[in-house]
Specification:
By secondary structure, the protein is of the alpha+beta class. Helix content is 16%, strand content 39%. The strands form three sheets. Strands 1, 4, 6, 9, 11 and 12 form a six-stranded mixed sheet that branches. Strands 7-8-5-10 form a four-stranded antiparallel sheet, with no helix packed on it.
């Protein structure tokens, strides 16, 4: 190795170091850190009232009824929450388990998962029924590649005045962070139109 005795020798030494294994090691370290950083999933949430008596002009309508095989179920309100999830990380994920939890006094009646095509699937790991309302569901997505988008639709009923942004949260056993891509939006549904398709006592 050249012993640096002047500026010219110093420049030669630096060139030798950079053209040798040191530069390769630095590049490898940077690439490894980039690939191994915690992955991110972006999400958007919108909520629409399907049946909310306070929004109706006819105050005699107080409940909505669903008929099961041998039982009738009454609910005082219904909301539809649409959740859009996108892999905004730098890795393709062969599969990932995502948990969706709602706050106290909110219950999940139904969950549907929509994907872009038949090669992308979302499997609900919980059994939901009108007799078994839950405050959390787990969904397995296969695959969840970069830029992939899945949509989850939840049917909710609440025992509070309104749904707020922090009432819906996400988790995963994988090293994932969830980043909001927009704030919660509350939309309006044509309640009179909806009532024509549902039995309301």
């Amino acid at each position: 190795m050249i012993e640096p005795t002047n500026n010219s020798d110093m420049i030669k030494l630096i060139v030798q170091v950079l053209s040798g294994g040191a530069l390769g090691a630095i590049i490898t370290l940077l690439v490894t850190n980039f690939r191994n950083k915690i992955q991110a999933i972006g999400y958007k949430i919108s909520v629409d009232p399907i049946f909310f008596p306070n929004s109706l002009t006819d105050k005699t309508i107080t409940k909505i009824t669903f008929s099961g095989e041998d039982k009738v179920y009454d609910f005082e309100n219904l909301f539809s929450a649409t959740i859009s999830l996108q892999n905004i990380g730098n890795k393709d994920l062969s599969e990932i388990l995502v948990g969706v939890s709602v706050a106290e006094k909110i219950s999940i009646l139904r969950a549907d998962i929509l994907s872009s095509d038949r090669h992308h699937t979302g499997l609900l790991k919980n059994q939901l029924s009108y007799d078994n309302l839950k405050s959390e569901v787990d969904i397995e997505f296969k695959p969840f590649n970069r830029k992939d988008i899945y949509e989850v639709k939840l049917l909710l009923t609440i025992n509070k005045k309104e749904i707020e942004f922090d009432d819906i949260k996400f988790s995963s056993p994988s090293p994932i962070i969830f980043k909001p891509e927009s704030t919660l939006t509350i939309g309006k549904v044509g309640l009179e139109i909806m009532s024509k398709f549902m039995y309301i006592p």
